[in-house]
Design goal:
Strand content: 15-25%
Largest sheet: 4 strands, parallel
Radius of gyration: 19 Å
Strand order of the largest sheet: 1-2-3-8
Number of strands: 12
Helix content: 25-40%
Length: about 260
């Protein structure tokens, strides 16, 4: 089916009103809103920016989609919980965001649900995927970090749900096409600490660099990121485990010029 892409230059999330007329004229069957300010530390320093981009803009987009009769899919985050729970969070757990980023995303969920009651809201985990030259490609960044080093460090006191963007996107489209509405957790199954995750990345890439486990205090952060960002869904069947998904993604990187 035909897909129309709107970049931030075409729809400025700080000033969404300037691009809404184009959306009204386009009248798409469905809008998938996956743009956000995801720099957690930047959001902590500038909560007003976080609110405008991650809460107010999605609410306005959802409102126009409801007026147009368009379906609306909003991508949210696993970071909206306080991380004190030992087990993965399910949809029925009450959010308690610790960061300005997470507070804005939770406000975005509420704004979307109020503006478009039939919207589909999907909470994602630690997403990996995309081209290796992308600014926030976590897998490629770890490869660069390990280059020429015998050892790197990674946190053992943060855990989450690594999730391949391809698996997430395919499942999201299936859910939207089936008419699902409301809030769902959508992640590859399994839980990993940051160190577990990095160890698996380097192993998949065939690298021998050791990964020393340290506490998150070893890394300077502005935002108090939750200790546990892992998710599981109590409403839909789980996606496949994150480890084979990661290995398959790394195989696609080889095609793009990154050698194992």
């Amino acid at each position: 089916f035909p897909v129309t892409i709107r970049t931030r230059k075409q729809l400025d999330l700080m000033r969404p009103e300037r691009g809404l007329d184009g959306l009204r004229q386009l009248r798409p069957e469905m809008v998938i809103h996956c743009a956000a300010e995801t720099d957690v530390d930047l959001c902590e320093r500038n909560p007003e920016l976080a609110k405008k981009v991650n809460a107010e803009a999605p609410g306005r987009l959802a409102e126009v989609c409801r007026e147009n009769g368009s379906e609306f899919v909003f991508i949210s985050t696993s970071g909206i919980f306080d991380g004190r729970r030992e087990e993965p969070y399910v949809e029925s757990n009450v959010p308690c965001p610790l960061t300005a980023y997470a507070r804005a995303k939770l406000e975005g969920e509420k704004a979307v649900a109020q503006a478009h009651p039939q919207a589909l809201i999907l909470r994602a985990g630690w997403l990996f995927g995309g081209s290796p030259d992308m600014k926030k490609n976590f897998v490629a960044a770890r490869l660069r970090e390990a280059e020429g080093k015998e050892e790197i460090q990674s946190a053992i006191d943060k855990k989450g749900s690594p999730t391949w963007t391809r698996d997430f996107a395919e499942a999201a489209l299936e859910m939207a096409a089936s008419g699902k509405t409301g809030v769902f957790h959508l992640v590859n199954s399994g839980v990993a600490s940051r160190r577990d995750y990095v160890v698996e990345i380097l192993a998949a890439l065939g690298k021998q660099t050791r990964v020393r486990g340290v506490t998150s205090e070893s890394f300077s952060r502005s935002a108090p990121v939750p200790a546990n960002e892992s998710l599981v869904s109590g409403k839909v069947p789980p996606l496949r485990n994150w480890r084979p998904a990661l290995r398959e993604y790394v195989d696609t990187l080889a095609v793009q010029g990154i050698e194992k």
